[in-house]
Amino acid sequence: MKNSAASLLTSVDDLFTTQEERDEAKRETIMEIPLSQISDFPNHPFKVKMDESMSDLVESVKSYGVLSPVIVRPKDNGEYEMIAGHRRKRASKLAGKNSIKCIVQDVTDDEAIILMVDSNLQREQLLPSEKAFAYKMKLDAMKRQGYRSDLTYSPVDNKLKGLTSAKQISKDNGDSQPQIYRFIRLTHLSQPLLDMVDEGKIAMRPAVELSYLTENEQEILLNTMEWEDCTPSHVQAIKMRQFSQEGKLSEGVIQSILQEEKPNQKEQFRMPKERISKYFAPGTSSQKIAETIIKALELYRRKQKNMKLLL
Which residue, of 73, 180, 206, 214, has the fewest CB within 10 Å? Predict the structure, then answer.
């Protein structure tokens, strides 16, 4: 498989072939390739979900086959690596197909990354985590290809000068340059926190601030959020980042910040966990504890009501 560094060197083939012959070698070809010979793209950031859309795609492949060929590139071992078409490959396998029509392109690692990202960013519904890792992969690839990347650029600074990778990505994909860097900051979140961003439990702006916390601080935050049954607002996340930068973000500080009343926040009843922990198995989530307590109270109320009727 080619790599980016190799593209900078003059190969023996370049010395003894014409430019026309080299261009012809790079020209794409279409082949029917066994699914077993196509591996997934390394660190592919886009999730292949088993949802209703996938079910519809499977039925379509069963009836009509894959209408649009996937894009692959050749590997050194004679097999192929998927660039664009992971969903179609999965649907083909589920539909009982043994092969798939492929466009074969002989491209470098960085060219493959950019093609893979661009072909998937056109999808309408993408999770924040998918955009985060996709933008980072493309930005790093463009940097290696010679674009300025300005990776020290602040995610809230709006003053970029000159041609940058982020500026090019913005032109290609529609997100503003600051938004691209906000997405990339999400790659510094722990997986549980990133999942909460994907699920809409943590908004983008506080998530960016939380991405500056250390791994240990993020773990403490996650446990405290579960116990307090809340997520931080943007203002609270900013406070946590400031305390973290000063080396003062302890568990007590996180708890104190999360307990601050937010605008329009509903009053909540809290009970020390140690008072009820003996009634639950170790590791039981706060949500499960709360649901069990509510059910027990409902049962108690029904019994009280029945007793009154008997009197």
Answer: 214
